[in-house]
Amino acid sequence: MPEGDTIFRAAAVLRSALVGRELLAFDAPRLSGPRPTIGTLIEEVRSRGKHLEIVFDDGMVLHTHMRMTGSWHVYRPGERWRKDPSKLRVGLEVPEWIAVCFSAPVVEVYRDTDRRRHPGLGSLGPDLCQPDADLALAVDRFGEYPAEGTSVADALLDQRVAAGVGNVYKSEVLWSCQLDPFVPAAEVPVETRRELLETAARMLRANLGSPVRVTAPQVAGGLAVYGRSGKPCLRCNSPIAMRKHGVHERVTYWCPTCQLSPAASASS
Fold first, then answer.
1. pLDDT below 50 — which residues of the chain?
2. Among residues 87, 184, 250, 262, which one is catalytic?
3. Architecture per CATH, 135-267
């Protein structure tokens, strides 16, 4: 699925094609509610975690969230699209370029002044793709989970804690920090929370300029555990395990031998 680094790169491409140009056409077949005015200028393209926003000078904001299926493409007029046109969710035409969002489950338009009242965006945590991300705030939010319930793996995916981490980085961060993914988030000490978030931020920022994610350059494929079920752990040589868990049955890859609970780490 698209993660924070993917959306960051998509925003950069859209920014170069759209910003400062006049909106010639706008198509969003499933959108209800307000729309940007034809003839308005595109002022800004911004990413925040896994959310992407296009800001128009009439005060409207187009918000998309890719989830598992969506993607943004940029084409020259007349260029053949690489995806089925029936999957179009948003189309923007400006002089020289056409930007198309395919298969995004979330497409909405609202006024920029309403952004903080948005039920999702208003509660997003610090964007770990940004160099000035407020890690102290993210550490505090991480510590707000009740004593039972949410695992540390699911807490890393919670965009209200920190924006940008998806399923790939979740597994890679937990392996790098040698932490059992299924430990309750409330049992993770504050210093370990900070280490997890610092590691996530470092991995995300290191991959902003490349479409291929690399967290472990010494292994083919560039990832330490994600997608490597049954293969040897780079650290201890034990087989990597895979399991679906959580409300959304997300897949986690981890090493059962060297990724420990905080209590086990402290006693070892």
1. 117, 119
2. 250
3. Orthogonal Bundle (1.10)
